[in-house]
Amino acid sequence: MSLYGVALMPLASKMREAIPDALQPWYCDDAGAAGEALPNARCLDFLVKFGPAYGYYPEPRKSYFICKAEDEPAARRAFESYDLEINYSRGQRYLGGFIGSAQKKEEWLGDLVGKWVSAVKTLSVVAERYPQTAYAGFTFCLQNEWQYVQRVVADTGPFFEPLEREIRLNFLPALLGIPPAEIDGGYRQLLTHSVKLGGLAIHNPVDTTHGVHSASLAATRHLTVSLVCRDTRFDLGTHRTCAAEAGQAARRSRLTDEQLFLDARGRDNPSVARRDKRNCAAGAWLSVFPNRLNGTGLSADEWRDNVRLRYNHSPLEMPAACDGCGAKMSVEHALSCKTGGLVHIRHDDVADEWRHLCGTALSPCRVEREPRIFSSVSRRVQTAACSSAHDSSTPTADALHPPAVTEERGDASCHGFWARGRTTIFDMRITDTDARSYRKKEFAKVLEQHEKEKKDKYLQNCLEMRKDFTPMIYSVDGIAGREARNAEKRLATHLASKWKREYSQMVYYVRVRMAIAVVRANSLLIRGSRDRQRPRRPLIPDGAALGDWRTWSDR
Ligand SMILES: [Zn+2]
C-alpha cells in the first residue's frame, strides 16, 4: 500500500501544479480536494485523464462532493461541464473521521457509539468468566477505536455518554465483581488512570475527547501548515519531531493530572496514600495480553482476586475461617498462614519460574535446584577443633564452642549469571508489605529490610565459596526488591542476546513473568485447601469398621 502511495507521488505533484487553487490532501491512494466546485471538478477530470498512466483509475461514481444544499446546483453544473457523474452529499465519512453538517455528524456518531455500546455489552458478558481476556480486549483494542474517532473529529464528548454509562453500569461491575453503586466519581476517576498511576487504564470516553483531539491537532500541525500554506515545504524530520513532542506533552500533562488527583486523595488518609503508592509500583501483570505460549494467562479467580486486592475489596466468597488453623480468615491471614504448606507451594512456584527463566536464558544445565550454602571456613575450624579435642586432654576454647556449621540451601544457582565462570546463588522470599507489623513502613523499606536479612545470613558464606549471592524479594502484589529488579535486568540481557530481541522488551518480559508467578499464588493462598491433618486412609486395617458401612441401597 505505501509503495503504491509512493508511486503516485508524481501524479499528485503534477495535479498540484496544474490546479493550484484547490487544496489537495492525499492519504496513500485516497485522493481528496477541497475548495470551490470548479477547481474540484478539474481535479477529478485531471485524475480521470492522467491517472491511468500511473496505474490510478478513479471512479467518479464512487466519489462524493460534500456541500451545503444551496451550493449543490452550482456544483452540479461544474461537474457536468466536465462530463463527470458523482454523488452529492451533506456529510460523509472520510479517512475514519467525518466531514459535513452537524446533523449528519450526529447521525454518524450515534450509529458508531451504538455499535461500541453493544460491543462493551458483549465484553461485559465475557468478563464474567474471562475477566483477563475481556480487560485486554477493552484496553488494547476496543478503547483505541473510539479514541481514533475522538482524535480526528472535534467536539464529540457528549455523544459518548451512553458508552460511559455502559462501562460504568455493566463492564466495570462484571470485571471487578462489585455492584455498580460502589463505583462513585472518585473511584471511577482512579480507574481511568494508567496502570503506573494506580488505575486500570479504562478511560472515560466523555472526558478524553478534548485532550486527545487537541493532542492530535498539535501532532499534525506541521503537516497541516505544509498543506495549507504554499511557502512551507513538508519535511519528514520536522513532522516526526512535531508528532513526538506533542505526544510527550500530552502524556506529561495527563500524568501530572493523575498524580495531582492521587496526592489530593491521599492527603488526609495515610492508608489510602500507602495503597495508591504501592499500586503505582505493582500492576505489571495487568498490562499484558493473556497468552498461553508466553505464560501470561491468569484464571478468572486469579485475575479478579488480585484486581480486588488492588482496590481494597476483599476477595469474593472468601471462607469465613481458615481450614488449616481455624483462625478467622482475613486477607492478611490467608497470605501468611503456614499451615497446610500453601505458603511453601507459592515460594516453590516463584522459584520454579526463576529457574525456568534462567535455564531458558543461559542453559538448563547451568541451573541447579536448591544449591547448598555452607561455610567452608566454619566447617574447617570445627573439624580442626574436634580433632584437637581428640588429640589433647585439655580442650581449647575453639573445641568447647566450635562455630556452627551452616548447611542451608538457596533456591537456585546459576553458573555465569553475573560474571563468566562464576556461580550465583538466589534465594527467594515473598512478603506481605501490608501486614500489620509493616503498616508504618514504606513498602520499599520493607523489601530492603528483607534483602538485608538474607544477605547478612548468606552473603559471607557464598563469597567464601567464590560464589555470588542475590536475594530475590517480592511483595505479594508482585513488586520486586532492588536486588531482584537488578537480577531481572541481567537476565533480560542474557535473553536479549540469545533471542536477538530488544533489551527493553526482554526486561518487561522477565518482569511480567515473575510478577504473574507471584500474584497467581495469591488465589491459591486465599482459596486453596490447608486441610492436611485428616487421615485419608482407614485407620483400622483389618476391616473391623465395616460394621458401620452404610450405603443408600442398605436402607
Ligand atoms: Zn490459618
In short:
The chain has 20 helices and twelve strands.
Strand order of the largest sheet: 7-10-11-12
Give the number of helices: 20
Number of strands: 12
Helicity level: 40-55%
Distance linking N and C termini: 79 Å
- How much of the sequence is in beta strands? 5-15%
Domains, number: 3
Mean pLDDT: 88
Unreliable segments of 5+ consecutive residues: none
Largest sheet: 4 strands, mixed
Shape: elongated
CA-based gyration radius: 33 Å
Structural class: alpha+beta
Task: Give the cofactors and ligands.
Answer: zinc ion
Structure description:
By secondary structure, the chain is an alpha+beta fold. The protein has three domains: 2-89, no CATH class; 103-268, no CATH class; 336-387 and 401-527. It is built from 20 helices and twelve strands. The strands form five sheets. Strands 7-10-11-12 form a four-stranded mixed β-sheet. Strand 10 (412-415) and strand 11 (423-431) form a beta hairpin. It is elongated. It binds zinc ion (ZN).
Structural features:
54% helix; two-stranded antiparallel sheet; elongated; single chain; 12 strands; 20 helices; 3 domains; 555 residues; four-stranded mixed β-sheet; alpha+beta; binds zinc ion
Spell out the blueprint of helices and strands:
Blueprint: H1 2-7, H2 9-18, E1 26-27, E2 30-31, H3 37-50, E3 64-66, H4 72-81, E4 87-89, E5 91-94, E6 97-100, H5 102-129, H6 131-152, H7 161-176, H8 185-192, H9 205-219, H10 221-228, H11 236-266, H12 270-281, H13 300-310, H14 331-336, H15 342-361, E7 367-369, E8 372-374, H16 376-391, H17 397-400, E9 407-409, E10 412-415, E11 423-431, H18 443-464, E12 468-475, H19 482-499, H20 503-527
Parallel strand pairs: 3-4, 11-12
Antiparallel strand pairs: 1-2, 5-6, 7-10, 8-9, 10-11
Bound molecules: zinc ion.
